[in-house]
Write a structure and sequence with these properties.
It is a single chain. The chain is α/β, with parallel strands linked by helices. It has a single domain (5-261), classed as Rossmann fold. It has ten helices and nine strands. It has helices spanning 14-25, 37-51, 67-76, 102-130, 154-171, 191-194, 198-201, 212-224, 234-245, 248-256, and strands at residues 5-9, 29-33, 55-57, 84-87, 133-138, 177-183, 186-188, 209-211, 229-231. Helix 1 (14-25) packs across helix 8 and helix 3 (67-76) packs parallel to helix 4 (102-130).
Amino acid sequence: MSRRLCLVTGASAGIGEAFARLYARQGHDLVLTARRAERLEKLAEELRELHDTDVQVVPADLAEPGAVDRIIAAVEARGRDVDVLINNAGYGLPGGYAETAWSDQHAFLQVLLTSVCEMTHKLLPGMLSRGYGRIVNVASLAGLIPGMPSHTLYGPTKAFLVRFSQGLHGETLGTGVHVTALCPGFTWSEFHDVNGTRQETSKIPKWMWLDADTVAELGWRAVEADHAVRVTGAPNKLIAAICKVVPDDWVLGFAGRRAKRFRKL
């Protein structure tokens, strides 16, 4: 098949679903993966009808060992190569670190960190050999600011994705492969409903929020322009810039006291 193929993890809702819709409009075939098979099938049917695109659904839980291999094997079984990789799957794990089960934290790291590295490691060589590839690692503004109470590993994993993407961006310059860390702030999606913080985040001013479609489009523009990091939205860019010059202790003192407004402590 001559059409390029885009693989989106966490494609059943939010930013992942928005990326799937965007790349379908751009004329790409799709591989959609997430845990909720029914959601994926519904989205796939809609995109096939709207854009006459080939959509493969591969239900998978990235917290499970071997999930990445099963996804890639399903793609290869159809004789396809992945040209665009959107590493989007993720969630929040509320509560203090000592109060949570290690099994939950381990699964969290597997989904947000290990699976991203593994998927990228296994698909990048093919992209390099073909001289074309796009990789978007959906990080967060949380990866660019000091760590906050609760959701203890969320910020650190996103900071890792930023540095990881910057390193890959440097390694792939001039190869035809573009790598971008997308750093959104508050985004209208199911993310806060799933992690139980909708009541807290509803207090955040509306001007701090972007919709998922806008975030996805900004990510697409950034990776096409081969930008290593893209922060979405003027307020978030300002926050990221301030945190680069203001001592961490000052930020922690100010923001830490306000964390309970949007996090379960």
